[in-house]
Amino acid sequence: MEDHKLKVFCTVAETKSFSKASEIIHLTQPAVSLQIQALEELYETKLFDRSSSSVTLTKAGEVLYKYAKNILSLYADAEKQIGELTGLVKGSISVGASTTIGNNLLPSVISDFKKTRPKIKVNMRVGNTKRIIELLNSGNIDFGIVEGDISKQKIKSERLLDDELVVIVPAHHPWAKRKEISILELLKEPFLFREEGSGTRQIVEKYFSSHGITVQNMKITTILGSTEAIKDAVEGGLGISIVSRWSARKERKYGTLKLLSIKEEKMMRSFTLIFSKSSVPTHAVDEFISYIKSYQADKLLQGS
């Protein structure tokens, strides 16, 4: 069914920006403008007010937006019911994932899923949690899997599985043969930290604060902007750090990094499934979500 123009329209309406919409749906800004122009010519009226600093819906635009969301939802519902009736599960799925999940968990899940459902095409978009929520609200992904706090977002959510944040040290470090380390011992070592705004950093700071420790108590020597940079620096002997157990799977397997839990209390967070409150999942999406819920993710960690 032809719903592309409506998807473009809804994305512009929800982001209030032609340029931002073009980034999300991977079209050039002129192409986005042409799609909107075609709709405006069809209805012979302006759908957006472009006179202000941001793009806002006109009265006619507000009416079309309400119906467009319903139409897109009905398209999805029709596809789902026909798929259930025929028993043929096909189509495409677009899933958004935050970095740890997108780089370390989902590739294995998607690969195994495709063996059971070869006619379903799975597209994955990776970004930070804020970006994934943006893509979800604009209708450009069917659902997302993220880590971090989403309590203030107007979306449906469901906990998927837990993730442990662990201390990483190089293979030659005096702690390398240990399985646990006291939080107080961490204060004696050069520490590599993520940048301000990092979800991992927020979890670490909150955990330390609950044990009476502030950033000022730590020997922070370097601030880095990605987990990969952190792991490389720790391997090079520049200090220790804390990352997701998932993100250090390969390094643990090949012995370049050693992983230690914190003795006092494990540092945990959750991976969360997120859905738009207004969306109707297709049969293919339902199949994939059921599959990932039953997926034995722990075996991937054990095999590392």
Explain this structure.
The chain is of the alpha/beta class and 304 residues long. Among the domains are: 1-86, Orthogonal Bundle (Arc Repressor Mutant, subunit A); 162-269, D-Maltodextrin-Binding Protein, domain 2. The protein is 44% helix and 23% strand. It is built from twelve helices and twelve strands. It has helices at residues 4-15, 18-25, 29-43, 59-86, 99-104, 106-116, 129-137, 199-210, 227-235, 249-254, 283-294, 298-302; strands at 48-49, 56-57, 91-97, 120-126, 143-147, 156-170, 180-181, 190-194, 219-224, 241-244, 257-262, 267-275. The strands form three sheets. Strands 3, 4, 5, 6, 7, 10, 11 and 12 form an eight-stranded mixed sheet that branches. Helix 8 links the parallel strand 8 (190-194) and strand 9 (219-224). Helix 1 (4-15) packs across helix 2. The longest helix has 28 residues, at 59-86.
Give the helices and strands, then pairings.
Layout: H1 4-15, H2 18-25, H3 29-43, E1 48-49, E2 56-57, H4 59-86, E3 91-97, H5 99-104, H6 106-116, E4 120-126, H7 129-137, E5 143-147, E6 156-170, E7 180-181, E8 190-194, H8 199-210, E9 219-224, H9 227-235, E10 241-244, H10 249-254, E11 257-262, E12 267-275, H11 283-294, H12 298-302
- Helix fraction, binned, reads 40-55%
CATH class categorisation of the domain at 162-269: Alpha Beta
CATH topology (level 3) name of the domain at 162-269: D-Maltodextrin-Binding Protein, domain 2
Name the helix and strand elements from N-terminus to C-terminus, one letter apiece.
HHHEEHEHHEHEEEEHEHEHEEHH
**Please, what is the average pLDDT?**
87
Distance between termini? Answer: 44 Å
Shape: globular
Radius of gyration: 23 Å
Q: Tell me the CATH architecture of the domain at 162-269.
A: 3-Layer(aba) Sandwich
Number of strands: 12
Flag low-confidence runs. none
CATH superfamily of the domain at 162-269: Periplasmic binding protein-like II
Summarize the biggest pleated sheet. 8 strands, mixed
- Secondary-structure-based class equals alpha/beta
Total of helices = 12
What share of residues are in beta strands?
A: 15-25%
